């Protein structure tokens, strides 16, 4: 809804008008409100009379069921009962200038797949440098693990050779090694 066409990007669902210059019988507001809907038979138009924050009267109609021309809407109290002698006289103009914004499901799927692929491409270009770093770090980690395993195997072979020759380290040697580490 908007008071101007084309509808601005930051539109609202509620459009307020100024109060009538002379309140009373046959008050004239004289403002134009545009309701644009792709599916007018699925849209409800709710017109309300508000005093400050308190709603005094309202009426609801399906936008697609309103006919062109001058119309009278009987207003209702906040609880939904009709108010005697409370009517809103309005003029309705219908236009089909706005193209149908609703796409068939097939088009929606194609558009969502296109948007998804564009997002994937953007994320790929953003993540590629980080992915290369992760790959390099993974290769370095694997090389380090292989080197550690090679050193363990070599240490185990040396221990076996020493034990065969009777040169196994004694408990005193282990204590001295521990003291050196501390």
Keywords:
single chain, alpha+beta, 2 domains, two-stranded antiparallel ribbon, two-stranded antiparallel sheet, 39% helix
Detail the topology: elements first, then pairings.
Elements lengths: L43 E8 L2 E9 L6 E8 L5 E11 L12 H60 L6 H11 L1
Antiparallel strand pairs: 1-2, 3-4
Structure commentary:
- A hairpin with a 2-residue loop joins β1 (44-51) and β2 (54-62).
- The protein has 2 helices and 4 strands.
- The strands form 2 sheets. A two-stranded antiparallel ribbon has the order 1-2. The chain has a two-stranded antiparallel sheet with strand order 3-4.
- It is of the alpha+beta class.
Number of domains: 2
Mean pLDDT: 77
Classify the beta-strand content into a percent band.
Answer: 15-25%
Enumerate the spans where pLDDT stays under 50 for 5 or more consecutive residues. none
What is the percent of helical residues?
25-40%
**How many separate helices?**
2
Instruction: Kindly report how far apart the N and C termini lie.
Output: 79 Å
Give the SSE order as H and E letters: EEEEHH
Query: What spatial order of strands do you see in the largest sheet?
Result: 1-2
Structural classification: alpha+beta
Tell me the total number of β-strands.
Answer: 4
Instruction: Give the assembly state of these chains.
Output: single chain
Supply Rg. Answer: 40 Å
Largest beta-sheet characterization: 2 strands, antiparallel
Question: What's the shape?
Answer: rod-shaped
């Amino acid at each position: 809804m908007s008071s101007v066409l084309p509808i601005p990007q930051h539109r609202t669902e509620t459009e307020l008008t100024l109060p009538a210059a002379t309140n009373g019988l046959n008050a004239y507001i004289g403002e134009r409100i545009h309701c644009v809907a792709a599916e007018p038979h699925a849209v409800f138009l709710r017109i309300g009379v508000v005093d400050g924050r308190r709603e005094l009267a309202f009426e609801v109609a399906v936008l697609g069921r309103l006919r062109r021309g001058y119309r009278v809407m009987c207003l209702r109290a906040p609880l939904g009962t009709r108010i005697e002698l409370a009517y809103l006289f309005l003029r309705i103009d219908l236009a089909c200038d706005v193209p149908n914004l609703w796409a068939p499901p097939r088009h929606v799927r194609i558009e969502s797949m296109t948007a998804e692929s564009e997002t994937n491409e953007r994320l790929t270009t953003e993540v590629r440098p980080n992915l290369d770093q992760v790959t390099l770090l993974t290769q370095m980690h694997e090389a380090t693990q292989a080197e550690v395993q090679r050193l363990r195997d070599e240490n185990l072979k040396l221990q076996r050779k020493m034990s065969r020759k009777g040169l196994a380290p004694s408990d005193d040697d282990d204590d001295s090694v521990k003291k050196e580490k501390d």
